[in-house]
Design brief:
eleven-stranded antiparallel β-sheet, 3 helices, LEA_2, membrane, NDR1-like
Length: about 325
């Protein structure tokens, strides 16, 4: 005997199976319809249509009261777009350049590096050539200048034929050394000398001589001990002229040792007191209308006088003249 509850349970199971079967058939038919609507590409592949929408179905069934609601229901929803990602915007006035890794080139390219090395070597060669050329030009210029100078000197020598003047110390007056050998003589002496010098320029018929007093020096010494200093007077000596002048020298606070005092007193008794006179004077030559630059002329005279007085007479003398002019001969 079948009860009413058992019949109702059987009917419910049968209805549930029928609803599930119907739902599956609807889903299959909907899927076949979408496949038919998809466009076919040339390569035979099927792609979804651009306007297709997602399908989602919900099955609603109430087992408690099947007559109160439909057996199934469907609704369609469009896909929700993903939320926008916040990107770091560049500051105003700046630019961001993104380059793919496969587009990054080497800086400089290899061919540019080779060209740079080539141009660098060529520039060095050119610089070396330029330096060598400049040195060559300088050497040629100096050689040309030397040739011109030698030619000018030769022309001057042939035109004027300069000769070295002769210098002689005629006399040497001595003062301040009287009684130097006496024991009563003062300890500090102030000797004075007046040298009479004869400058003979008679050998030069076309060359005049300018003597500059500034920078000149006349020094008198005894046995290496400096006694007095003075200056050469400034004057001009015309061509063919003989000039006699006096060069004075004065010393102060000169002290002799006992040995030097004895030697000087003994030399005076022998009437031969030796002195050395050193003269240095700047000289300029007058060659017609041209005056040369100043060159120093050095005169060294070794002489001896018979007494230590103003009336002393020359016993012996010997003078040596040194002039830097190569062509100024005796």
């Amino acid at each position: 005997m079948v009860t009413s509850s058992g019949m109702y349970q059987c009917a419910s199971i049968t209805t549930d199976s029928v609803a599930r079967t119907f739902l599956m058939s609807q889903i299959d038919s909907h899927a076949r319809r979408e496949e038919q609507e998809r466009p076919m590409m040339n390569d035979g592949r099927v792609h979804p249509a651009a306007t297709s929408s997602d399908f989602s179905g919900e099955y609603a069934y109430s087992s408690s009261d099947p007559s109160s609601s439909p057996l199934y229901s469907f609704h369609f929803e469009k896909p929700v777009p993903p939320p926008p990602q916040h990107q770091n915007k560049p500051q105003p006035g700046t630019y961001v350049v993104q380059v793919p890794k496969d587009k990054v080139f080497r800086v400089p390219p290899p061919e540019n590096a080779r060209l740079f090395q080539h141009y660098t070597r060529r520039a060095k060669r050119r610089a070396g050539c330029s330096c060598l050329r400049a040195c060559l030009y300088l050497a040629v210029a100096l050689l040309s200048l030397a040739v011109l100078l030698a030619a000018a000197v030769g022309a001057v020598y042939l035109a004027f034929k300069p000769r070295q003047p002769a210098y002689t110390v005629v006399s040497l007056a001595v003062s301040g050394l009287a009684g130097v050998g006496n024991a009563s003589a003062p300890g500090a002496l102030s000797p004075g000398f007046a040298a009479t010098v004869r400058a003979d320029n008679s050998a030069n018929g076309k060359v005049g001589v300018h003597y500059d007093g500034a920078g000149s020096r006349v020094a008198v010494s005894y046995e290496g001990v400096s006694l007095a200093d003075g200056a050469w007077p400034a004057f001009y000596q015309a061509p063919g002229n003989i000039t006699v002048f006096v060069a004075k020298a004065k010393g102060t606070g000169i002290r002799f040792s006992e040995r030097e005092r004895g030697q000087m007193a003994a030399a005076e008794r022998l009437r031969s007191v030796p002195f050395d006179v050193d003269i240095t004077v700047p000289v300029r030559l007058q060659l017609g209308g041209l005056r040369t630059w100043a060159v120093p002329v050095t005169v060294r005279c070794a002489m001896a006088v018979d007494r230590l007085a103003a009336s002393a007479k020359m016993v012996s003398r010997s003078c040596d003249v040194k002039v830097p002019f190569l062509f100024w001969r005796n």
